[in-house]
Structure formats: C-alpha cells, structure tokens
C-alpha cells in the first residue's frame, strides 16, 4: 500500500502570499536556492533551513505552483501556474469571489493524493481536501478529528466512505470521535486551514474545531460541489456518450425469429411450448409477438407456419408459451426467410449490446449493479470496476476477477492497491485468492459476457476475461474514465439532484406552520431541540411529527442560546419533495427517538 502524505508545515496567509509573490514576479522557473534566499528577506530569516522549502507546500498542493522533481522526490525548481497568477492577483486585490472560484477549480480538478508537487512522496487514491468537503456536504460540517479519522480509515484501513460515515455520525452523539494513535498522524489539517483562510470554507464559532462550506460558495457552485470526487482515480475527463446508429422505428420483418432446441420443436404443433426462461428473455419474446421457429444455428425452420404468442406463464425455471397457428410459409422461400431472420437476430443482438454499453457509460444501472453483486455493497460499482481493471491490465484470470471484486467490495483494498496485488501475483506466479469470493453473486458479470461486452478466452491453459475486441478498439478511452466509487458517481438527473437530501438531517420541532416561506433565523425551544448545533442540516417539523412545517432543508450557520431558548441563523440548502413527506418524517422520527416504531 502506498502512503498518503499531506502538507503539514504552513498555512499562514502571509507566508503563502510571500511564496506566490516570489514566483509571480519571476514569471519563470525559480531554483530552490534562489527561492529560499528571497523568502528569507520576506519572513523570519532565522528559521530552520528545511522550513523555507516547506512554505511552498500548500500553494503547490492546490496547483498554484508547479515543480521539477528528481527521482528521489527532491524539488529543484518551481514555477507559478496560470491559476497561481490569478490567485495572487485576487489576493492582493482582496477579490474573495475570484479566490473562491479558483479554489473550486482546484478541489474539482487537482489530484492531491499522488503526483502532486506539494506532497511528492504521496501515493494514495484518497484526495484529503475533497474528502473533508464531501463530509461537510453530507453531514453539515467536519471536525479536525473526523477529518483525521476518515483519512486513516479510508487510506490506512482500506475502508470505504459509506461504511465509515455512519461511524462519524454515531460518534457525534457520544461526544465526538476518539482517534487512535494511527489516526492522530492525520490530525494536522493545513490544507483545510488554507481553504478557511482563503475564504472557501468557514470555521464554526463554537470552539469545536469544525468547518463548513462558505454559504456564497455553496450558492454559486452547488452542482459542482456535489460532483467532486474523493477518490482521485475517479477524477477523469467526462465520458462522451457515443451516438449509436439511427434505429428504424418500423420493423422491416413481419416475424421475430425464435430459436429453440430440436427436442422442443416437436411440441410446436400442440400449441404449447416449454422453454428455458433465459432463452426466452435473451431473445426478447413477448406476448403478442408473431414468431417463426428456427433451430439454434438458424440453418432451418422448425415449422412452416408463423405462430402468435397468446400467453406466457412462468413455471419453475421455464416459460410455458401458448401458441396460435397463423400463416403458412412458402417452403421454397425458406433460404430467403432464414437470411432475413439471421439478419434480424444480429440486429437484435447488436441493439442489446449497445443498450448494455450505454447503461454502463451513463451509470444508469449503477445502484442496481451494486446490490446485485452483494447486499453488503455500499461503495463499489462492480461493472465499472471490472471494465477499469481490464482497460489497464488487458485481461483478468478467473481467480483475479473474483479477488478484485471480493477484496474491493468486502475487503480492505482500494482500487490501486488491488491492481498492485494482482500484478505482484503475476510476477511471482502466485494464484491470488480471496476467502470472501464465495459471498458475492457474479451474475452481473456473467450478463456482460452474455451481452457480448466481455468475452472469456484462454491463456496459459487458464480462462481469462477480456473486453470484446470490437468494443476495446472503439471505447477503450471511455472505459478508462469510468468511475468506480459510489460516492463519486455523479448525478445525471438534475431533478433528482435538486430533491436529494443530505445524509444527516436533524428535526426542529415547532408549533408554527411556515409552509414554503424561506426564512433566515428562528427562535426554538431547546427543551426538545437540545441537540441542534452549528453546522447541522435541519428540517422544521410539527409536534409529534404530524407533518413538515416548512418544505426547505436549512443549514444552521449561527447559534445564540439564552436560557431555554435558542436563536438560530439558517441558510437554505435545498427544497423538499412534498411527495416524499411521509418517508422523510419516518426517517426524522427514527433519528429523533433512536428507534423505529
């Protein structure tokens, strides 16, 4: 496992400004010795010699400087980037809006965990600043201890985001997260302090070391914030959806081909055929279809009449199809008909393949794929995982496929670490296995083989899985961009995004009925709203959870207690879908009382 390294030295604004000023004025590569000498004239000249290079870590980390780095990870020269120039100009002109825009660009696009001059020895799939921001978006705020715990849990332990977040929320109700010795290594959050001091985040004023997103940043960049990636392997260019060939909306064939076994052919005349469910569904045979029965190789007709599918009943693992004889077929035209039927079957197969491909590239079945492989899976899109791995490794042995899926979904490996293990196994000629592979359902992968997206082949006398060669040639670059982690998979449905709620929301019980009015502050009774703290997401509800009093989710940005009353300052987060009121109330009531009724 590679290590994660995060700048720990300085997030002092004046020092960061001095670093940017030196490189801004040079407007070219600056050698390390020259940089140090100039910096000594601008800040304390009596620091440890190693301190001066470290002053450039945070600006470099956010992409405002670029570096020339030796094979031993030593930085020899630095140069200001275009974004760094704009950042320095925004700093000296006190233009907070531009600073926020540049920082939005940085957290959205910069890879922090690896190949970053601000921490050149770091080799991690985790981008720490984005992890903190994701925690804030989902729960309202993030503390320094929560930040440290999440980095430790996701990187050091290989745990996944949606399995770790509940631990954070549970700890909040019990006084806060307690850090292990290992987690304490990450409690220094200099990049987060820089985001506060540059105006992208704000610090709560309750003395509990927690941060929130600046309200102006959220209002301007909500969509972009919701789509940031905490795993840098998912920070790829957006997938371009291929335009398929235009499909003719009118069928050119009167009949569908229906390929069945010779054994079942004798039953056609009885008006009732029993056929495997898989075979019927694969050929898309439905009630109301007119079909011509052919053998599996499409070499001959099995009956010289067309048949109307009257009814389809499921009996065990088979479908019982009730048939009605229709028109007779001219035997002399059999070869012509078979050619047309083969062409129709080919078109149907290609259409099915294209449909499966688009489902993958559009992430339209990601949640379904995750659940199909395991009910325990909250974090990994298995189909995308396999395609990404195949796009990088070219093939997977059957044992490697199961190892990859089991250890990333149920185990403690992140994607890059899993690929390293597979490569090491090949080099050492070791058959890597997982003791968890029996817990997964591989039908979703098998369906990709049936749909001709993946193919089984053979290498060194063993089965290997590959991407279909035709797809590999056309879509390899697209497959390399597929996102793997559920937390990173963006929301394509704008309406669904608008209606989505944060993962942690508290209820505020009030007697008033505010309805759709947007408010900025409210006085609440702490006797039954005692858990509300700065940073929380809240929904106003009626007593005894009889209904929602205001169809807006707010974030608490200020708290002022006076006796049993509390005045809260709030900002709108998003609107609530009224059709989901009963479902939302049920969840809020459960969270409030700590149990389900």
Describe it for me?
This protein is α+β, with helices and mostly antiparallel strands and 597 residues long. The chain folds into four domains: 13-234, no CATH class; 256-341, Archaeosine Trna-guanine Transglycosylase, Chain: A, domain 4; 365-480, Arc Repressor Mutant, subunit A; 506-593, Archaeosine Trna-guanine Transglycosylase, Chain: A, domain 4, CATH 2.30.130. The chain is built from 22 helices and 19 strands. Strands 7-9-10-11-8 form a five-stranded mixed beta sheet. Strands 15-17-18-19-16 form a five-stranded mixed beta sheet, covered by helices on one side. The chain has a three-stranded antiparallel beta sheet with strand order 1-3-2. A hairpin with a 5-residue loop joins strand 2 and strand 3 (75-80). Helix 7 (128-139) crosses helix 8 (144-156), helix 8 (144-156) packs antiparallel against helix 9 (161-172) and helix 17 (398-409) runs antiparallel to helix 18. It is globular. The two termini are 45 Å apart. 35% of the residues are buried. The model is unreliable at 245-252 (pLDDT under 50).
What share of residues are in beta strands? 15-25%
Helical stretch tally: 22
In total, the number of strands is 19
- Placed side by side, the strands forming the largest sheet appear as 7-9-10-11-8
Note the overall shape: globular
Low-confidence stretches: 245-252
Largest sheet: 5 strands, mixed
What is the overall pLDDT average? 90
In angstroms, what separates the terminal alpha carbons? 45 Å
Please estimate the helix content.
25-40%
Structural class: alpha+beta
Q: Using the CA coordinates, give the radius of gyration.
A: 30 Å
| Total individual domains | 4
